[in-house]
Amino acid sequence: MNRIYMDNAATTPVRAQVLEEMMPYFAELYGNPSGIYQTAGVSRSAIYDAREKVARVIGASAEEIFFTGCGTESDNWALTGACATYGKGGGHIITCEIEHHAILHTCRHLEKKGVSVTYLPVDEYGIVDIDDLKGAIRDDTFLISIMYANNEIGTIQPIKEIGEIARQRKIIFHTDAVQAVGHVPIDVRELNVDMLSISGHKIYGPKGVGALYIRKGVRPGNLLHGGAQERGRRAGTENVPGIVGLGRAIELAAAELEEEAARLISLRDRLIEGILSAVPYSRLNGHRTSRLPGNVNISFEFVEGESILLLLNDKGIAASSGSACTSGDLDPSHVLLAIGLPHEKAHGSVRLTLGRYNTQEEVNAVIRDLPPVIERLRSMSPLYEDFTSAGKALLR
Amino acid sequence: MYTEKVMDHFNNPRNMGEIESASGVGTVGNAKCGDIMRVYLKIEDGMIEDVKFKTFGCGAAVATSSMLTELVKGKSIEDALGITNKTVLEALDGLPAAKIHCSLLAEEALNAALWDYAKKNDIVINGLSEPEGHEEEGIYVE
Questions:
Q1: Domain span including residue A97
Q2: Residue A394 domain flag
C-alpha cells in the first residue's frame, strides 16, 4: 500500500543531505568539543558553522544562538530563565490560550511559584487581539510570549506588531517559532523579537536538538547547570551530530523556502477546497490566509476524530486529530475550544499537515478517500441520526 | 494500542444500524467527552431477538458497542443483565487504560435500552435500575 504521510507538523523525516552531513560526527569525528586535542577542535568548528547557519536564517548573529535538546527545552528556558532574571520572584507574563503545552504548562508551573500570567483569548481564527494585548500590560509585566504560528490550526500571529509594542514598553518578547522557522521568512531584528524557539525535527532535521535565539543583552537565567558549554549558558555536552543536522536542515529550508511555500500553499488550498466541497457539515479551523503553508485542519460534524484517523490509517493515510481520545484525557484540543468550537465539533477535527514529500497525487488521493470515511462514520452516528430525523420532521 | 479483536470490531462492526419501532432504545454518553452510544432492542417473550447500535466515538467506543450487541443477541433479559463492562472488556481482550470508560458506556447503554423497554411496557425487571445521570434531549448524560 502507498503510505501517505500528512503529519508533518508532528515531525518530518531527516533529509538525505542532512543525514549525510551528520554521519561523520557519530563514530569518526566524535571529539568532545570541550577538549583541546585535534578532534575536539573539529567538533567545535562544526558547531560554530551550524550556529552561523541558524543565525543567518533568522537574521541574528552567531553569538545569539544557543543550542538546546528540543523546542520544548527552548520554551522552558526562555520562560523560566526570563522569570529568574526579570521576574524578581513575581511579576507578570502575557501569553495566549492557544500556545503549545511547552509554554502553557511552563506558565502553570511558574504561577505556582508566584508569577501571575495572563492568557489572552484569541478570535475565531486563533489570532490574538492587539488591543487585548495592550490592555493586559501591567507595570510588572516582564515577558510577552506569543507563538509565531500555531501547531494545530496553523494560524500566524501578528508578530511584528506584538514586537513593536513589547519594545516600546520595554518588555522581553519571546516567540515559540517551532512551527514557523524554515516555513515562513523570519527576521528577528525586523520583528523586535528578544527570544525565539527553534526545533530541528520540524524542518527535516533530527529529533533531540533545538535552539534558542537570545538577543544580545537579554540574560535569561540558566535552565541547566553544569559545564561551561554554550558560553556558560546551557550546560551539557553538545549533541554534535544533531547540531550539525539542525544547521544543515535550516540552511536548506531557507534556501528553498519561497518556492516550497508557494508549492505547499497551492496543495493546501486544493486540499481544503476539495474536502470542504465533498463533505457537507465540515468547516476549516484557523485562518484562510494567515496560515502556515502546509496546515489543513477541518472539523467534521457528528463524527469523532480518532475513528477518522483509524479508518484513514487503513487507507494508508497518516494524520492527527484534536479529539480527546488522541490526547489521553477527556478534553478535546484546547486550541479548538479557544477558537470557540463546541466540544462535539472539536472532537471531530482532523489535522493534515503537508510537507516537502507530499505530491498533488497524494492530495487527490486524500480528497478521494476521506469523504467515504466521514460518510461511513456518520452512518454509525446517533448524532447524525438525530440531526437527519430532525431535518425530516421539519420537512414533513 | 488496540487489540486485534478491538480493531476487528471497529473495522467490521456487528449489528450496526437502527431497529424501526424497537421495543426499547437507550442512549448514553456525552458529546463533551466524545462518546455517545445508542442501543436498540427488539424483545419478544423476554428474549432479545434483535439488537442494533449506533455510536459517536473513538475506536474503543465503536468496538465495545459492537461487542456488546454480539453478547446480548439471542439472550434472555435476565442473562443480558449479567453482562457487565468486564464481560465486554474480556471479550475484546482488553482496552488501553484511558479507554476503560468506553466499556462502561456499553453496559449503561444496554441498561438504558432495557429501562426504556420496561417503562414502555409498564413492567418491572428485577435487578434493573434507572440509568444514572440526567436526561438531556433523550440522552442520559453522566
A1: 16-253
A2: no
Interface of B with A in 10-69 (CB under 8 A): 10-11, 13, 16, 18, 27, 31-38, 54-62
- Chain A partners within 8 Å of B7 (Cβ): 310
Residue A391: pLDDT band by 50, 70, 90 thresholds? confident
Instruction: Give the model confidence (pLDDT) of B33-60 as tens digits.
Output: 789 999 999 999 999 999 999 999 999 9
Smallest Cβ–Cβ distance between A304 and the set B11, B27, B34 belongs to: B34
Q: CA A379, CA A307: separation in Å to the nearest integer?
A: 13
pTM beyond 0.90, yes or no: yes
Question: Which residues 6+ apart lie within 8 Å of A391 measured at CB?
Answer: none
Going by pLDDT thresholds of 50, 70 and 90, the confidence category of residue B129 is confident
Residues A276 and A232 placed together within one structural domain of the fold? no
Q: In the beta sheet, which residues pair with residue A50?
A: none
Which residue on chain B is closest to A315 by alpha carbon? B11
Q: Is residue A235 part of a domain?
A: yes
Chain B CB contacts of A306 below 8 Å: 58-59
Q: Among A253, A285, A303, which residue terminates a domain?
A: A253
Q: What is the mean pLDDT of residues A127-139?
A: 98
* A and B: number of Cβ contacts within 8 A: 74
* Neighbour count for residue A390 (Cβ, 10 Å): 9
Best interface-test mutation with B: which of A314, A323, A325 has the largest number of B CBs within 10 A?
A: A325
| A298 and A340 fall within a common domain | yes
Q: Is 0.90 exceeded by the ipTM? A: yes
Domains of chain B and any CATH numbers:
4-125 (3.90.1010.10)
Q: Which amino acid is at A35?
A: G
Distances in whole angstroms, Cα of residue A223 to Cα of each of A73, A78, A200: 9, 9, 20
Do A33 and A152 fall within a single domain? Answer: yes
